[in-house]
Structure formats: C-alpha cells, structure tokens
Amino acid sequence: MFSKYIEQECLGGTMIRRMSNLAHSLKAQKGNEKVIDLTLGNPQLPPPNAYINALKTIASTEEPLCHGYSSTNGDFEAREAIACIIDQFEEVQVTSEDIIMTSGCAGACNVFLKTILDPGDEVIIFSPYFVEYIFYIQNYGGIAIEVPTRFEDKWQINKQLLEQKLSNKTRCVIFNSPNNPTGISYTQESIDCILNIIREYSIKINRPIWVLNDAVYCRVVEPNIHIHSIFHYKYSAIAYSLSKDVSIPGERIGCLAVNPNIPNHNQIVNALATTNEILGFVHTNKLQMRIIPLIKYATVDINLYNKSRQLMCQCLDDLKIQYIRPEGTFFIFPKVEASLDEWEFCKTFAENGIVTVPGSGFGCKGFYRISVCQTPEYIQSIIPKFKEAFNKTVNQLYKKRTIT
Which domains does the chain have, with CATH numbers? Predict the structure, then answer.
C-alpha cells in the first residue's frame, strides 16, 4: 500500500507532530484548560496591520492575470522586495535577479537540494537540527551526515568535529541560524569556521561544496543580535520565509537567495527556477506575491516574542534548569536532569499537563524543546502550571527509580 520508505520512516510523523498529536489527545481526555501545548513553532501573534491592509487592497483590486501564472522564479516586484529584506543582514548586495520565490522555507530547501544533489551525495547538518532536514535530504537520494554541536560549547560549531565528517562525497552544508531548536545564533567565529573549512575542502576534492543557511528566524531575534553574512563564500544561498516574522506560516511565502557572485549565476538561478516548477510547486502563492511589495519591512512586534522568551527563561532559572540562553526564534532547549530518561521525562511531563518535544527528535538526546510563540500574557499565565508540573514530574520519576 505504501512505499517501504514511507512505511518505515514517515507513517508516525516527525517527533514534533507526534507530540503535537499527543497534546490534542490529552486535551480531548482531560480538557483544554488542563493541558498546555508547547510543541509547535506556530506563531500566535496576528499579522501586522500593514499585511491585513495590503491583503484587503490586493483582494479588491482586479488586474489582467492577477490570479494567473507567474514566472517560475516569481513576480519581479515580490523578488525586489524580498531582496531588500535579505540586504538587511547580508554584506553583499542582493537584487531581484538573485531571488527565487518558493513555497516557504521548506520549499526553498527542497528546491535547492533537488537542484544540487545526485544519489549518494552527502549533506552535513549540525545537531541539534530541524527535524525535517533529514527527510528533505533523503527525498533526493542524499545522505545526511550529522555533526554534533555541544552544550558545553554553547551549541557553537566545533572545527574538529566538522573536519572529521567531510569526505569526497560531501556536496552541501546546511545550517540554521538562528537555530531551531536551541534558539542560539551562530557567532562570526562559527560562521567563519564553516566557510573556511568548506572553502579549503572544496579545493581539495576539486568540486564546490554548497552552503545553505536556513534563515527563517533571521528577524525573530533579540535587539543586540547580529545575523552574520555567508555570501563572502561564493557557493552559498539563503532560505528565508515570511512565516515567522509576519505570522503567516500557512500562506507558504518563502524564497531562495543565491549569492550574487556565484560562478555561472544565471544558469544556477534558471536551474533552481526550473526545479521549482518540476517539483510541482510551479511558483509560490500569486496573491501573496502581490502583497509583499506593499508590506516590505513590516513584521509583528518582535519584542513581544522576546518578552515571552525572557519570561520562560526566568521560569527555568527559578527551577534551576540548565539551558543555553536563546538569542532568537520561538524556542528554548533545556537539559533533562542527567539521571533521568529523556523520553520518560517528556511523556510524564505531558501527562502532568505540559507537552514539549524530546531532544532526540532533533538529533540530540537528553534535552527537550519548549516553544514560546505565544503572547507574554499567555506565557506569564502558564508559568505556575509549568513549575507545578515540572516538580511533580521530577518527583514522580525519582520516586519510581528508587522503587525499582
């Protein structure tokens, strides 16, 4: 009935979706008010007024072919507006000619990997990583090679660990900064480490190794956090989406930004645009592409997410839970107490009313991910319940261990 791959790897869903489904099941059993779902990075703030007003304007404006096909790399005006956003954190100027509009960041990653991978090619990912990267890589016959980052290094890149995983089959390095699930942003030192090693190794194996930054959270950061450029390495690209910072993940508006200085630039852009078409995306949402030029730099109030994150961090501090303080995203990635089993902890925590995602779902056992993509008022309201459930969970597990 199913392919062997789907049957073996995908029928149960990703760890994030499994825990989200568990939250829904527990709510049905116990009541909505007794279960707090901190699993998904599904932004709860409404889109900014600029977006709502632009949507009304565009929806009421009829032009020839306004709902028809676009080019496979997307409307010029939308690409021009997105280029201005990318220019806010890239040191090399980006123009509309470097942009391919895609179906969210997920679509961008899939288009990129389909374009560059041959079966058996290896793609480096840094754990903890966004869980779907492995599936994206496997979609096109690639092999995901995990390079761990470590809590004691504050989740930054370790040069030796990266060098050990490179081979003549390495085709690409994907990283996610700011990072899901840890919330940290890679330092300039970490970015330079990746790019310098890849540059040297590309020369050694006599073929370029690509670097892709999944920068979906690039505007969901603390005020003092700088997103470091990758475009001083030629074979590089950025995946970006308006999903998180404009609060429209269901509209699937994303892009690939290709390094303007890449060799054979036009050929590569055309290849990516064609891949966008043959994967069945064709191009991204036409209505939304007409909205983008009208909103350009508009975002939700990012300070509200920063406040929510800070409130939860204070809660963790009160409970003396270990974690690396996040600098952006919707997430915090605390440690499970050393003597406790990660899955047993998350399962018991869920039964006590707080549903999170085990770190093994992100390739990093012994941790769990908390999502704080809600308003500060909501986060403040659940903190007493969080503390109560956490203490109850730890006491239950230690008592159980003592008995057994």
Answer: 2-45+300-400 (3.90.1150.10), 47-292 (3.40.640.10)
